[in-house]
# Entry
Amino acid sequence: MAEKNEVAVKDITVQVLEKVKAFENAGELRIPKDYSVENAVKSAYLILLDTQNAAKKNALEVCTKASIANALLRMVVWGLSPMKKQCAFIMYGDKLECQMEYTGNIALAKRWGGMADIKANAVFSGEEFDYSVEAATGRKYIIKHNGSLKIQDEQKVIGAYAVVTMNDGSSFAEVMSMNQIKAAWNQGAMKGNSPAHKNFPDQMAIKTVISRACKLLIRGSDDSILTDNEDEYTLHTEVVDAQVENEIKTESNKQVIDFDEVKEAPKSDIKPNVGVEDPGF
Amino acid sequence: MKLKVIKTGSAGNGYALLSSTGECLLIECGVKLSEVKKYLNFDLSKVVGCIVTHEHGDHAKYLKDYANAGINIYAQQATFKTRHHRFKPFQTNEGMFLMQEIGNFFILPFSVKHDVPTVGLLIHHKECGKILFLTDTYYCPYKFENLNQIIIEANYSKEIINKKYRDDKEFLANRIKSSHMSLETCIDLLKANNLSKVDNIVLIHLSDTNSDEKMFKDKVQKATGKLCYVARNGLEIFL
# Structure
């Protein structure tokens, strides 16, 4: 059964690749230049081989072909790599879904949102931490953050912040209190009660604030990255032009072709409409 | 001999050659059979056959309908995707197509340059002499002698297409350039052949959006000094 389904899923990866190529060729889909569809789909296949649900059933056995194909397509349209854990495949019953990881948010904010870099830290109770809001722009800035390992060892996380640097050199911060962070966790399936949330609250808080900072950049971005390739366009069409022109120039109108038998048959003298009965139409 | 353009262009192609004795040769079956019937006064017995240049829908969509109506379909083997006793593949010899005799029409197919196997046609009938029928090819490798009529594709003008596809859709632009004939290539072809015996030049398969009827006609007439028609649906001319 598993083996059979493996074959089926391998088929799906091929189908998805073909579909993506077809969309691309028809101009219905544009893939970012820095994204390799082939690598992403193949690594997704490898990851799916090891994806199991709580009952230790493999994703390839349980999930429907259509949901697998959809999840793969979603990954490709986002332009994310599952190998880099930018997205994860999650099984919901017999449905496979592709979910964005916080690293995926970073990748997309960098690709689409003009973000150059993002750094985030957790703030512990007892640390010196201060931020301000620039009234003119509404941007938040971190003024001060001093901590110590002792505090980090002994105290609770009270919040987290992320500092975003944009491609144009400007920067701003996103700040969240622990209550805000927990409210965000509550939206998740585990409601912040997973072992990861319990054992590494600072790391999970950092992920949450990063995602919040990136999302606005992603959702507010345009598609210019896909269309700002005028030079490439010109180059490509010129290459095709040159190839076609050259072929037409060197290969056209050369060899004479003609009938053998009726070659010399002259055009008869019958003129249309002269003494000839109209065939009736 | 009367040429009827039942339909032309990428939405469908159908041409009929009707001799004064009532013989009708159809070229392409990209129009519904009912349109052909209407034109022939519902008398399909006049039809001696239908030649199909290639498999694309705008030329071959109604292949089966025509065959089921008792019309013999002539095309190269690659164009037929199924079997039918009315499908008559062109005979070949050493890679070249042999002459076909269909009624009083003599047909010599030859391979041209499209993105699928496609033929151009030399058609001879004593009423109108030698016709060159050439469509869906971005250039023609052959030259012809003693032509009397030319029915040829002038799909797009480089000027228009380069302007139009500047922003986007390079794929489409490239596809057209390597599968259809530009006005410029068409004129070069006409000039490369001896046109002294040519009576009429009919331009067919103009793109809806990448061509300009009047400009095409003017340019061809100027370049050749011959009477030029631009085919439009329903056009009738005596060859």
User: Anything to note?
Assistant: Chain B has a mean pLDDT of 91.
